[in-house]
Structure formats: C-alpha cells, structure tokens
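Note to self: user wants both folds in one dump. Writing first protein now.
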Amino acid sequence: MPVDRDGAEASRRLRPPGLGLLLAEARGLFEFNASLFLSPLLMRAPKGDGHPVLALPGFLASDLSMAPMRRYLHELGYDAQAWRMGRNLGGLTRVRETLRSRLAEIHAATGRKVSLVGWSLGGVYARDLALQAPDMVRYVVTLGSPFANDVRATNATRLYEALSGERVEDFSELREAIAGDLPVPSSSIYSRSDGIVNWKTCLLHPSERAENIEVYFASHIGLGVNPAALWAVADRLAQPEGEFWPFDRAGPFAIAYAPPDPTVSA
C-alpha cells in the first residue's frame, strides 16, 4: 500500500493555540502585579555569584520588556546585561553576527562565561548562541521559546515572516541544531496555557544537563514576569559553573509547577 507522506506529515503538525488562550494573554498584567506583590518571597531565591547574564527579548519586544527580569537578577547579585539591539523584529540569520559580538563583548569585559536568558524568540537566539560559542556561554534558560517540533505552531509565525523576511521552513539544518542537545546546561520554562506558541514547541530533550520546567497557568506575554518563572530562572542560574542538578519544585512557589514528567520531551 502506498504511503501518503503529505498526509502523514500533516498529521504530525501542531496547531497554534486557540482563540480562547490567545485572548487570555491579557492576564500577563496580573502576573507582573503578582511579582511586585510577592517580591519579598522572590528575594529569598538563591543569591548569584556576580557572573554576567544576557537577557534576550522576544519577538517585537525590546530591552524594556526584560527590565523586570534584569532588575530582579541584579538584586540577587548577577551582572544582568541588556542586548542593546533595539526592538526584536526577527531574523535569526540577520542578527547572529551582531548578537555574537555582543556576547563576546560581555565575555571579554567580565572575563567570565555568560548565562543567557531568552524570552520567546530570544530563547531561540540563546540556544543558537550556545551552539556558536559554547566557550563563552555558561547556562541557557528559555521562556516560552518555540525551538522544537513544528515551530510554525505559533500565532506569530506569519507576522514574523513578514517582518523578518525569513520563512520558518528555511535553514532546516540550523533549526534542527537549535532543537537538539546543547553543549552547555539548559532549562526550558514553558506553560501549557501559553496563548502564543504551542507548548510542545518549547520542549527540549531531557538529559543529565537539560530539563523542562512547566509553570501552571502562565501566559506567554507574562512568562518573563511570572513570579514562579522568575524564581525558577534565579534557581537555575545559581548553580555553580559546570554543574547541574534537576530543578527542585519545593519552595514558596511549589504549587505553581507541574511535577517532572519523563514522558514529556521534544
């Protein structure tokens, strides 16, 4: 019997989040307010060792969107750095060289490896940077970043292609590399209630140095200011350089995390 490859491929395709989840993204404002209210609890997170952290904004966002994250990490003792490239209008291949130069600048100025925290598209950039320059990268944390499976399964794909001039189908080898194992420790923070990207596009392959962390009920636009997500970022960055242990879902935000599921992977 002949195999219908097109039909088989279509059956594997993921769909973007539905209209209900998309409209519910407005709750991101409440997540930000919750972080302000719960700031005393957030400051109980493990303290940093002063190493640099480069915060990469999502699609259509600028350094302003990462300001709460940078401020929080600075208060915990990290050298939090902005990407200084204006608004993120997409174009993975277009920004690669400039972004790597920014990473090299921070690495040279501090003399230390740089952790990368990327929100949405910024997380895709972060994973690519870790592949390009593992000698300069210490750790990668992504927040709602669509780098795996069918990466077209987002509600921003068409706009991304229109503004960046890139088609998601292009550069298949690069996309496969970004979705694969990284040479540095990494954590992917995501939510099944994400209204912009299908949560399955955020799943990395769990390993001895890589994990997925699910946050209940978080929105896409609020994930970078969600108190449980902020705590998880701080906890992951506090690990000594070169070491990795699984995220401990205990603590003040324990109720916000799904238990680790070994069956969930890219």
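First done. Writing the second protein, which came from a different request thread.
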Amino acid sequence: MGVLNEFKAFAVKGNVVDMAVGIIIGAAFGKIVTSFVGDLVMPPIGMLIGGVDFSDLVITLKAADGEIPAVVLAYGKFIQTIIDFVIVALAIFMGVKVINRLKREEAVAPSLPPVPSKEEELLGEIRDLLKAQNNRP
C-alpha cells in the first residue's frame, strides 16, 4: 500500500498535472501548426516555385519492382517538417517574449505605500502632540 500512496501523492502534485495539461495542449497546438503549414503556407510557396508540392519531392533510390515498393528519400516531407518546427519555435518565442514583457511591466509598476491603519494614525497624532508639548518654552 505504501507504493500506491506514494504514486498517488506524486500523480496529483500540481507540477505533474500542469505538465500533463501542457503536453496535451502542446499536441493540439502541433496539429494546428501542421495544418497551418500544410494547408495555408505551403500551397502558395509551392505555387511561387512552379506548382511544386513539397510532400511529393523525393529522390528514388530504387524503383518499384512488382509488389516491392520503391525506396525513396522523401526530402519534401522533411522540408515541411522543418518549416513546421520554425513556425512552432517562432510562436513559442513570441509567446515567451510577451509573457516576459508583462512580467517586467508588473515588476516596474510602482507599488503604492500601504495605507496606515487607524491605530497608526492615532499614534502619529499622539507623537506629534508630545513633540509640540516638549518644544514649548
């Protein structure tokens, strides 16, 4: 039972749950970026370079022979994966940059001095009255 309790304590810690949520959101974000690159970015780029579809760019090492499929280097898919990575890295960079700017603005914002309590105000008045009595000739 001790191991089960230790695992339960580990699994429900905030960091583990936060990490799991981050991984799930990251996977969904990866799908969005892949669709963005494949469906919106690559078609115009392919059109600009003469209608080339990057996913079709291959080097055939060995042609298909009957039922044996061809052996190819699919460098077009690799190029698309690199573009996916660059876009994800750029999006993360921009997000971190915005978060850092917000943190700096929060740190730079001057904090107002605390408002004195009623007791502090009364003590201040008593101090001032005592000073005034001691300064009389």
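Dump finished. Worth passing along: The mean pLDDT is 82.
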